[in-house]
Amino acid sequence: MDNRPIGVFDSGLGGLTVLKEIMSSMPGESIVYFGDNGRAPYGNKSKETVVKYTFQDIRFLLNQDIKMIVIACNTASACSIKQVKNTFDIPVIEVIEPGATAAVRETKSKKVGVIGTTNTVNSGVYENAIQHIDDQIEVFSKACPLFVPLAEEGWWENDIAERIAKEYLLSLKEYDIDTLVLGCTHYPILYNTINKVVGPEVKLVSSAQEVARVVKNLIEENDIARDPEIDSVYRYYTSDNIELFESFGSRILGKEIHAVEKVDIEKY
Q: Which among 73, 102, 148, 208 is annotated as catalytic?
C-alpha cells in the first residue's frame, strides 16, 4: 500500500485526456497533474529542449512526493524516455507503447495511420513500436502541428478546425487506413472534428485508455494502491494562465476544477 499520489504531466491540456481515464479506472488514487502551458507546444522544439523541459517537469513532480510518473505527452515520451528511465529511480509510464498496442489490436487491414507533432512523427517511434509487435502492418504518418494550438485555444469543433483537419488528414485516407492513432494527447480533444473528416470507417485510437490500464496493472502488481479508507485528492498545476487552465480543463474532464496553482517551472 502506498498513499502517495500519481504524478502526471504534459506540455499543456492534452494530458488531461489521460488523467480522465486514470481517474475513471482508479477513483481511489490521488493525482498531481502539471500542464506546462507556458512553454507549449513541445512538438516544434528541438530534442534537447524537450529533454530539458521533461526533466524539469519530472523534478517538479518528484518535489510533490509522488509514487510514479505518467508522461502524458507523446513528444516528451519520444524524445526523452530512455534518458528519463536511466536517470530517475521511480516507475515511469509513457504513452507510445500503449497506443501502439491498441492500434495493432484494432486494425483489420494492417494499414495504420499515425498523426502527431513534428517531433513525434520524425522520430518514427510509433512506426517502430507498431512494427515491433506486427511487422506486417504498414504505417503511414503525418505531422499535424497546428492541432495542439487549436486544442489549447479551445477551437475544437469550428470551421477553422475542420478545414485544417481536412488539409492534414485527407491525404492519409488515400492509403486506405482503417485505424488512425492520435499520437498526441491533445488530439482526442479534437476527436469529433477528426472523426468527421476521416469518416466512420476509420477507427480512432487514443493511448489514454491503454495508459490507464498499464498504470492500474503496475499499481496492482506492485501492491502500491492507495488505502481505500483515505479519500483521493487531485491537485492541478500550470506554468501559465490559471483561469484558462481551469476553464478548458473543466471542459475536458467534464467536471469543475478549481484551486489550480501556477508554478515557476524554470526553478526546477
A: 73
Name the pLDDT band for 207 (thresholds 50, 70, 90).
confident
Can you say how many angstroms the Cα of residue 131 is from the centroid of all Cα atoms in its chain? 21
Q: Check if 6-95+209-267 and 96-207 are the same fold.
A: yes
Instruction: Round the average pLDDT of the chain to a whole number and report it.
Output: 95
pLDDT at 180: 98
Domain 6-95+209-267, CATH class in plain words? alpha beta
> Measured at the alpha carbon of residue 108, what is the angle toward residues 18 and 128, in degrees to the nearest 5?
60
CATH level 2 (architecture), domain 96-207: 3-Layer(aba) Sandwich (3.40)
Average pLDDT over residues 59-84: 96
Any catalytic annotation for residue 184? yes
Measuring CA to CA, how many Å separate 91 from each of 36, 95, 118, 126?
21, 14, 27, 22
Q: Phi then psi for 139, rounded to 5 degrees? A: -120, 130
Map out the domains of the chain as residue ranges.
Answer: 6-95+209-267, 96-207
Mark whether 144 is an active-site residue.
no
Q: Is the pLDDT of residue 19 over 90?
A: yes
The set of cell numbers assigned to 154 is 479551445
Catalytic residue (one of 81, 139, 161, 184): 184
β-bridge mates for residue 138, sequence order = 111
Using an 8 Å Cβ cutoff, are 238 and 35 in contact?
A: yes
Say yes or no to pLDDT of 161 above 90.
yes
Mean pLDDT, residues 221-230 taken together: 94
